[in-house]
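New to this. Explain the following:
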Amino acid sequence: MTSLLAWVNQVEVWLLIMARVTGWVMTAPVFSSRIVSMPVQLGFAGVLSIVAGETVIPVQGGSVAGLTLGPYLFEVVKQWLIGATIGFVGSVIFTAAEMAGQLIDMQMGFSMVSLFNPQFGTGGALLANWQAWLATLVFVTVDGHLALLAGLLHSFDWIPLGAAAPVGPAAEVIARGVAVLFVLGIQLSAPMLLSLLLFDVILAFVSRAAPQVNVLFVALPGKILAGWGIALVTLPVLILGIGRVIGWMNTAVDGVLRALGSG
């Protein structure tokens, strides 16, 4: 009977770990992609929970074992929110990249073109999808997914099961993430936006210097050609910018763990 009770307590603790990991998988970039089926995501979350449980359950299991139904359900929701908050920090990179692409699409005239975005499972403009794919490539190349995974596993050291997670710091993290999203989106799109603005200025001078030239007839195809040319020329700068953003992500994840662990 005692062994059965101990086994039930271990399962309860494992489900709490599973809740945090599931929240992370549902929001973390690459892992939460819509091209990954839900059974695969749940299977990955289950295996990852078993691996984490090997070290977490013996150390932290006693603090949450034997909870009644009400406090236990509250703890499940809290663990899911902790995991989702950590994954949200990583998703800011891809949302910012897509936002940068949408800003460029409006300038190039591609805002009416819609392609499927596999990361978010929605339709997106041409450059927005290109930016998202490029961000994914750089993210995986520099092992950003492994850094985000390490942040999740370290979260059990910073925020043990059953520990109070302050609401104030968590809300501040989300608010800062949204603010950073807009800043990063503008920074990633700035080189191409400024170049396309310069192209518009050149067309304006051409229109004043040679009124007989039909500027409207050449503006759209000219901006498309110039836009793709500028995109190829500024590609190294864009990759460097995305790499720096991923470096910011590592620092931000550490800040999230410190903020949530301060309670």
